[in-house]
Predict the structure.
Amino acid sequence: MGLQDIRDRIAAATAEAGRPPGSVDLIAVSKVQPPDRVEAVLDAGHRVFGENRVQEAQERWPPFQARYDGIVLHLIGPLQTNKARAAVEMFDVIQTLDRPKLATTLARLADERGTCPDLFIQVNTGAEPQKAGVLPQDADAFIAEARRLGLPVVGLMCIPPVEEEPSLHFALLGKIAARNGLSGLSMGMSADFETAIRLGATHVRVGSAIFGERAYELT
Ligand SMILES: *Cc1c(COP(=O)(O)O)cnc(C)c1O
């Protein structure tokens, strides 16, 4: 457990997959973690973090940003349209673009601000009713629509169903990305990031394996 262990395992999985060193970015998922654990990871030199909620990020990160240079924040939880402005102000990357209304809102904000976070489109690879993301069969059209709006779409993101073999979902996400000319693949969490790296992940999102178990789970 811990940051160095995860870095070592990422490096090993990357090499084993025959991929170049450094081709997988580690996003340390700090949601709900106590500040002292986050600070320890910052002190160890890590700078890329993922948060699920805009408000939690707004409370947590400005003090750290005043003390540590080069922090990069990814939003990995669902984004309500009425939080979009706060999200583009707070985050460097938004991984959860998943519907036309949010795409339109982000495009309007991008026009107004002259800049936009990098975007991943979330795909609901398991077609789970309770989960966010575009359905796999709607992904090509939605990617095209986001591009037509001028949005900086850099890749796709998925969260496989807990009870299913993740490799099938990672492979599907890779296929959709490849046929749409997208190079970014955000997939793999504490339990399955090595599998995701084997299947082409460029970004893995690891929380509990770095920080320890969360005191409570977000729903
Ligand atoms: C919480 C979360 C993670 C990290 O989960 P762990 O199992 O703690 O590694 C990754 N991605 C998303 C979208 C999450 O919500």
Observations:
- The mean pLDDT is 96.
- The first strand starts at residue 25 and ends at 29.
